[in-house]
Amino acid sequence: MKLVKYVLAVICASVAFQSLAADGIARANFTTAIENREPVDEVTELANDTTKIYYFTEIQGLEGQTITHRWEQNGEVQANVSFTVGGNRWRIWSSKNLQPEWTGEWQVMVVDEAGNVLSQNSFNYVAANTESTGETTAVTAEEAPTMETGEVAEEDLPNIAPAAGGDAEAPAAQ
Predict the structure, then answer these.
(1) For residue 145, what pLDDT band results from cuts at 50, 70 and 90?
(2) Which of 5, 6, 83, 90 is most buried, judged by most C-beta within 10 A?
(3) Domains in the chain and their CATH numbers?
(4) What is the mean pLDDT of the chain?
(5) Residues 6+ apart with CB under 8 A from 112
């Protein structure tokens, strides 16, 4: 009987330790799209003929905390997008519409409420290897860069069905 109690205590302590060790950022990366609340690829370099990029983050064990995606270009903050973590496992993403002339290094830092950097990734936005047509287009106020966000709790996953032809970028119910 004592052996059984000891084994159970060790198992419980091990599970508790693993759960503490797993708190934080489980995954984070740039991607060209989000489908079924998952990144479709991992981007480290992006040609400037693609003008939208997403930053995906999976968070574990930080329920109730505020997490921020801090977008920087060449070391200068371009945007801060904050999320409240609504579950033990929470997936969030933000996106950035890029202008072709915004080449250089882009970085997103995942920052907690205390300002601690939990994760960071970067990608290079580079000139595309295409021949120029000589045409230029002006950017109107309606076409100005925007940020999008989305999040979903693990417990909500059974209730979410992929929408045929739907917009996977829309924020999910919490």
Answers:
(1) very low
(2) 90
(3) 24-130+137-159 (2.60.40.1930)
(4) 76
(5) 62, 65, 66, 67, 68, 118
Tally of CB atoms within 10 A around 39: 22
- Residue 62 phi/psi, 5-degree rounding, is -115, 30
Q: What pLDDT is attached to residue 161?
A: 36
Please answer whether residues 78 and 94 qualify as being in contact, where contact means their C-beta atoms are separated by less than 8 angstroms.
Answer: no
Per-residue pLDDT tens over the stretch 91-144: 999 999 999 999 999 999 999 999 999 999 999 999 998 544 433 333 333 333
27-31 long-range Cβ contacts below 8 angstroms, 24+ apart: 27/56, 27/57, 27/58, 28/55, 28/56, 28/57, 28/58, 28/108, 28/110, 28/119, 28/121, 29/55, 29/56, 29/121, 30/54, 30/55, 30/56, 30/108, 30/121, 30/123, 31/55, 31/56
Q: Over 90: is that where the pLDDT of 33 sits?
A: yes
Closest by Cα among 65, 140, 48 to 99? 48
CA distances to 35, 113, 120, 122 from 117, rounded to whole Å, are 27, 10, 7, 14
